């Protein structure tokens, strides 16, 4: 039998409260216990609230409604370390809820209190949950500024060197969020954070490596930070990381960071010198990489899975250091190459393309590294997104002429031409864009496209699924090819003109601009203009002159000026009112452009009646030919500038209609007698007709006598009157004038003699010399001709009484046929004159001088155009001026 133990019947003192075990089942109770004065009760309550908040977002919101955040915020400064720790755990967990973050942001001093808990004196658990709380708060811009102001960056940078991975993860993630504020960049650098960020690339935890790469990319936005990272061999470290296949999920972020570092020419130069750039390209091309010559191979080697080798224990399942070290090195020349993932290739190409766009020196360095080969390799990849990235890279690097030439030599043009027929719109668009840039000022590349890509380019124009960028790029490429005559001919024969005219109706102003530009380049050839006429693109092109886009109007004006080289095209544009439209553009300060005047001059050069009516001037090179007509000076408010001659042929002879002077040196057609219609008399009606015939015989005889008394028109007039068809009338007398000047004036020895003789002859044909043109009854003569002709069109040879503008026009006509260069000018009140360029000295040592030809007062007199007598010749009489 065992020994009995004597019970202790001693009761506790009367002033001591015995412990009570409270089984709290409501969160409200736990919050109330936070107000207890007993530290053990508060610590347990805070721990319970942490567990409750960690279960769901709803629980966090519930605790906020119960004012738990307010109590916990007070307790995180408690003197008891357990209370402080548990309270921080609960508050840090609750901060994941946006309403809790709002409360902390609005509570004065809350941010600085939490930041102070990152001090070295605090426990590692407090650091973990304080940094977690700051990480949540850093999602708000206002909180970022408050954390930076409270000195949180220095504490967070220091925590990057601790051993606990959770603290490191929360700290680096917080810094990554704070770096969204540019002011944090310099603070992290000044706090010594850049070496710490690079050290974290060797972490055994991919999440830490990920945030380190993001932080490096963001901190590299500052030039000083990029310089320091360059000195720390950051580019080589990042390239080594890309070369580790086991870290493929981090490759994209490493390349993004590299693309920012490559903005600096110094960085690109250093990467080229130590082979880092070539190793990066080799990793992406899936070829053996050259050795690292940076001198920091050991520091630049990544570890499998991103794990570090400092021997510390891990909460997340750590592997042995030997296994990590064996698999950490990038593939060497003796190891099989593991292909880089497609999305990594894609991001790498785009990152390098961004760098190439930043600076010409960067493009030069990339060219020395033969980056063109990388992009060409990506074009042959099976993944369409990689093909797009390769084409975009070629577009970026083609800012350099030497890169464009190299791309063509390496075979990029043929591949891009094939990709124009790819089923993916994105691939076609990127390929067309690359071709548009690679063919700029590189004839060799243009020749390759002309050989392999014309059909596909035209198909892109005809394809309704082509995007705006695709259409624009195809047009630019064709414009680049059009510098070669054979290429222009090939594009025309393959249907380029019809495809371009179709796209003139595109709603996109960019497409309209590029299409019109391409048409202007192609239509310099005769065959292209003929195709344009066959496709009838006049109206579509003319309508774009009304566009509100400046570039569209400029390109269309250029196209019109090119097409106006063809007489038929010029006449067609004239019939559509293009001359009026261009004149309106010239009068507008906002709508005119550098090609408006060229287009107008081109049309008027082929449509001299319109030019004469509009400009009141015909230049020395403007030759008047048969079919020219003078409609008079254009009124300022007139909207119909110069209708075709057929319009005036059918116009009734009314007093308000102006006479139209016609130049047509062809013989007049003989009068056509009216057809004779024989009527067969009906039976039983002969007697009645005989009576009617006898009764009207007297009237017919009287009418005949009356007509014989009137003045008989000239043969020329009879020919026009008798013509029932609205054909252009001939001019026998003008033909006589031309024969006379060819026989009598053309043989004269000097141009001056010819001009003088021609002036006298013109004056004789138009009524002779006179001191006062008012004595010439020219208006009566013109009106009489209109009535006799029953037409407003008057051949110039029929005018026997002419003044300034009649004589000057006839002088210009005859001088052009003789080959005498003369200009024709018109002013108000029917004033007109001619100017000729003559050499004054016999030896011809001095340039020609302009002379005005007198056709009125002293026919044949030559007056220097700037002389007083020339000014008097074209000035109005004083009486008319006073009126």
TrEMBL record:
Residues 686-701 have a biased composition (Basic residues). PROSITE patterns: ARM_REPEAT. Gene3D superfamilies: Leucine-rich Repeat Variant (1.25.10.10). Residues 731-863 form the EDR1/CTR1/ARMC3-like peptidase-like domain. Residues 1-20, 289-341, 665-733 are annotated as: Disordered. Keywords: Repeat. The keyword Repeat applies. PANTHER family: ARMADILLO REPEAT-CONTAINING PROTEIN 3 (PTHR46618). It comes from Dimorphilus gyrociliatus. The keyword Transmembrane helix does not apply. ARM repeats lie at residues 151-193, 411-453, 452-496. Pfam families: Arm (PF00514), EDR1_CTR1_ARMC3_pept (PF14381), HEAT_EZ (PF13513). Residues 1-12, 294-313 have a biased composition (Basic and acidic residues). This is DgyrCDS4793.
